[in-house]
Each structure stands twice: as structure tokens, then as C-alpha cells.
Design a protein that fits this description.
With about 500 residues, this protein is of the alpha+beta class. It folds into three domains: about 110 residues, Uridine Diphospho-n-acetylenolpyruvylglucosamine Reductase, domain 2 (2-Layer Sandwich); about 120 residues, Uridine Diphospho-n-acetylenolpyruvylglucosamine Reductase, domain 3; about 230 residues, Vanillyl-alcohol Oxidase, Chain A, domain 3 (3-Layer(aba) Sandwich), CATH 3.40.462. The chain is about 35% helix and about 20% strand. Strands 11, 12, 13, 14, 15, 16, 17 and 18 form an eight-stranded antiparallel beta sheet that branches. Strand 12 and strand 13 form a beta hairpin. It starts with a helix and ends in a 9-residue tail after the last helix. This is Oxidoreductase FAD-binding protein. Belongs to the oxygen-dependent FAD-linked oxidoreductase family. Keywords: FAD, Flavoprotein, Oxidoreductase.
Length: about 500
């Protein structure tokens, strides 16, 4: 579009929302409308549902996104306080204004939900507005899958731009490591395709650089054959915790790590009983075709865990849609939510210490939060995962594959705004005291998985100074006026 025409339109309409409404018509919704209310209701957390933009733009194409960014770019100069904006796909990041904006413009990408399988079946192009189960359901009839989210209702866009963990990470690395092309709308409105050979600096930056360079309107990523596989949840009581920590350390450190084995080792505090239990999610992704028969014998890689006494089990042979739906049921939305995360060098002592500190924050304060849900999840990040990027052109996560690591995730859900401050206080305490303990044990690590980070954390700094400086250079090149740094305040920014 001609910039003079956009300036004239903005002056005539008096706001970015009304100029966008004129250009994009029914793709723009306002407070009180069915489309506006549906968009807000689709956020995972109550905090994000409670943020009310002046209007919501729902583009149906990259060209629509281009129009939107051109208006916002020019409007940001004319109406600097009216043309702030946010971008969301699935809306699963919990903190308020992470992907929404009060009295600004929210760009809702949910209508960018195309899924196109390449004729040779070796890649799939996915719109950012898809939820991962949409992608899996489209690929399944072809006997294919791609690396993606493990919770069915998580959106494609945010997870992939933040790195992304998958059931298939031991085979293929982070989700971003499987992306071969990004269709991106730059701040100026230009639509480009970033690959390893074209806009290669932008391609690399988008592999973990989040929402800092433009709006990705399509991801082309590797697809591969996959049938049913073995997985499910198993519950263990608190007496098994020491054995589980030792088993997880050995599992993560295995020099012959089984690439089919994926594991989420979770510890849940039961507010009603006042005690803890484990709820572990196992998957063994070696394809079993269309079989639904129980796997016998079970994979020996999990023997140190499965030998422990259990009080429930959902282990079965099924498909990825079923397993991601099960995980979603353990991560229900519609409440106040908090994520925070840290990464440590593989250590059973650190796993035990993290739980001990978490328990202290509960017993000393959080135990009186009504109807609170509280869990700690440990996820192995062995060298087999973090070294994969070296074979696919690299990424921007700052992990060199030299150490076996584990990710520690805290998830809290609650209902009352009056409890927000103390929930946040105790979450900060857990991370702070755990990092101190990690230094004592010599197992500290700077990396923070962006998709699990709290608002008050700085995952970009956790990538390392060299990576951060590289991301800043890409930002200056493609966004010289800093539109996505200043006009789009949500998410994690590159400049202090």
C-alpha cells in the first residue's frame, strides 16, 4: 500500500482500529461482538482473557497481516498511544498481556490455519493459528507426523518460535530444529520466505527468537512416518521420590540414550490430602503401525521407573492425538495460571532440592490458597536433544550439546486475584533459592526455556551474550525502527 494513502486514511479515521476496520472489514471485531468475545474466551488463562484490546484483527492471509502491519507501523507514528499491538496464535502463555494488549490492537492468527502436506510426504506447511491436534489429525491418515506440541490445544506459532519440546525431540531436537522455511511478514509489510539459504540470518533468529522480528504466517517443517506408539500416565506415591530422582539422573545420563524414549517426570501436591504424589508421562515413539495391542515386553529403558509400585496407570498403545488430549486434560484452562522454569545440569540431588524448596513455599504460605493446583515437572534435556541443531543448520537457543540437562517447570493454577501476589512471590522464591542451591552443587545453567518462562524472567539473556547480540543485530536489520521492540510490548524483548 502507498504510505501516503495509509497516512490519509489514518487521519480520516482517527485511529488504527478504525483504519483497519475500513481496510479489512469483517476481519476486525470490537468489544461486545461475538467474534471479539470468542477470541478472548479462547485464551488459556483467566489473566489473558481479562485483557481487553480496542479491537481484534483476525487475518485470513499473509496479505491481511501485511496490511495490518503497514497500518500499525505508520499509525504508531501518528497515534503512538493507540497503535500498540499484540500477536497471538494459540494464546497458551499465561501471563497477562503476553499475547494480548489492553486498549490496543490484538492480531489473532487463529484463522491462519492452513495445513499443506508436500507431495513427497517429507514436509508439511502449517499456519500458526492451528492447534497441534489439528496438525496431527491432518497428517495421521497419511501415516505421517511432525515434531510439535505435546498438549493438544497449544498453538503452533508460539511453541515453535520459542523452541518447542516434542515427543520426538530425542530423534529430531527442538521443534524449531525441524523448520525449513518461515513465511514472515516484516514490520514494513513485506512478505518474505526465510530459509537456510535465503534470509538465512532471519531463519536462524526465528529458531528461538520468539515474536521479535515480524509475524510468521506459515511454518514449513519436516514430516516423517509414524504410526501408533506406547505411552500414558503412571502414578506413584511419595515414598518412591528418592528412587525416581536417581532413576531420572541415570536415564538422562545414559550414553546410549534411546531416541524413542520421551519422559515427563511430574510431582503433584494434593491440597486436599496435604501430600505429594508422582504422575509420570511415558512415551516410546517407535512406530507400531495401526496396532492397539499392549506393548509386550515394555521398553527396558523405563525399567527403573516401572519397577516402582504404582497406584494408577493409563499405559496403552494409541495415537499421538490421544496422548496429547490426555496431557491437555492435565493442563486445563479457565483459571489463573503461572509457569516458571529453570534448567540445571543433570543431578538427582538438585531434583530433590527443588522439590524440598517447593514444599517449603507451600507449607509456609501457599497451602492456604483455595483450590490451588501445584505441580513440578522434570524433563530430560540430554545431549541427544541439544546437539541436534548442529545437524540442521543451528538454532538460537544457545545450547551447545556439551551437557546433559534437565528442565524444571513449576505450574500453579488458582482462582482468586487476591492470591496473585503471594503465588508470584513464592514462585520467585523457588527459582531464586533453587539457583543458589544449584551453584552450591555445581549444577547451575543459564538456559531458561522461553515457553515456560514467567513474565519476570529473561530467557533471551539465558541464550548467552553472543546469541543475544546476534538476535539484536537481526532485529536492527529487519526492524530498524524497533516496531516489535516498543510497539509490541508482549513476550520477551531483545533490548533492555
Amino acid at each position: 500500500m502507498d504510505s501516503n494513502h495509509v497516512e490519509s486514511l489514518l487521519s480520516l479515521k482517527g485511529s488504527c482500529c478504525h483504519a483497519l476496520d475500513f481496510l479489512l472489514k469483517d476481519k476486525v471485531s470490537f468489544a461486545g461482538s461475538t467474534a471479539y468475545n470468542a477470541s478472548l474466551a479462547s485464551y488459556w488463562s483467566i489473566q489473558e482473557q481479562s485483557v481487553h484490546p480496542s479491537c481484534i484483527v483476525s487475518p485470513h492471509s499473509a496479505e491481511d497481516v501485511s496490511i495490518g502491519l503497514q497500518v500499525l507501523n505508520i499509525g504508531g507514528r501518528i497515534f503512538p498511544h493507540q497503535c500498540q499491538f499484540a500477536v497471538r496464535s494459540g494464546g497458551h502463555t499465561p501471563w497477562a498481556s503476553s499475547a494480548n494488549i489492553q486498549m490496543g490492537v490484538t492480531i489473532d492468527l487463529q484463522q491462519l490455519n492452513g495445513i499443506a502436506i508436500a507431495p513427497d510426504g517429507k514436509s508439511v506447511t502449517v499456519g500458526p493459528g492451528n492447534r497441534w491436534n489439528d496438525v496431527y489429525a491432518r497428517l495421521a491418515p497419511h501415516g505421517l507426523v511432525t515434531s510439535g506440541g505435546r498438549v493438544s490445544d497449544v498453538g503452533v506459532g508460539g511453541l515453535t518460535l520459542g523452541g518447542g519440546l516434542s515427543f520426538f525431540s530425542p530423534q529430531h531436537g527442538f521443534v524449531c530444529d525441524t523448520v525449513t522455511r518461515y513465511e514472515v511478514v516484516l514490520p514494513c509489510g513485506e512478505i518474505v520466505n526465510a530459509t537456510e539459504t535465503s534470509y538465512s540470518d532471519l531463519w536462524l533468529a526465528l529458531k528461538g527468537g520468539s515474536n521479535n522480528f515480524g509475524i510468521v504466517t506459515a511454518f514449513e517443517q519436516t514430516a516423517f512416518p509414524q504410526g501408533n506408539f506406547w505411552g500414558g500416565f503412571v502414578g506413584n506415591d511419595v515414598s518412591t521420590f528418592p528412587a525416581q530422582f536417581e532413576a531420572l539422573e541415570a536415564f538422562t545420563a545414559n550414553p546410549h540414550y534411546d531416541p524413542y524414549a520421551a519422559f515427563i517426570n511430574s510431582y503433584v501436591f494434593n491440597l486436599k490430602s496435604g501430600g505429594w504424589y508422582a504422575a509420570n508421562q511415558y512415551t516410546y515413539t517407535k512406530s507400531l503401525g495401526t496396532s492397539t495391542k499392549p506393548l509386550n515386553p515394555q521398553p527396558e529403558v523405563f525399567d527403573n521407573f516401572t519397577a516402582l509400585p504404582t497406584f494408577f496407570s493409563t499405559m496403552r498403545t494409541s495415537n499421538i492425538t490421544d496422548f496429547t488430549t490426555e496431557l491437555a486434560a492435565h493442563n486445563a484452562g479457565g483459571r489463573r495460571q503461572l509457569f516458571t522454569s529453570a534448567t540445571f545440569v543433570n543431578s538427582a540431588k538438585m531434583m530433590a532440592a527443588f522439590i524440598d524448596i517447593a514444599n517449603a513455599t507451600i507449607q509456609e504460605d501457599l497451602i492456604t490458597v483455595p483450590d490451588m493446583s501445584y505441580s513440578i515437572s522434570y524433563q530430560p534435556q540430554p545431549k541427544i536433544i541439544t546437539s541436534k541443531a548442529a545437524t540442521t543448520g543451528g538454532n538460537s537457543l544457545g545450547l551447545d550439546g556439551s551437557q546433559n540437562l534437565f528442565n524444571a517447570l513449576l505450574t500453579i493454577s488458582w482462582d482468586t486475584p487476591a492470591d496473585d501476589a503471594r503465588v508470584t512471590k513464592q514462585a520467585k522464591r523457588l527459582i531464586s533459592e533453587s539457583n543458589i542451591k544449584a551453584k552450591e552443587l555445581g549444577v547451575e545453567n543459564r538456559y531458561i526455556y522461553l515457553n515456560y518462562a514467567a513474565e519476570w524472567q529473561d530467557p533471551i539473556a539465558g541464550y548467552g551474550e553472543d546469541v543475544k547480540e546476534g538476535l539484536q543485530a537481526v532485529s536492527r536489520k529487519y526492524d530498524p525502527k524497533g516496531m516489535f521492540q516498543h510497539q509490541c510490548p508482549g513476550g520477551f524483548k531483545l533490548f533492555d
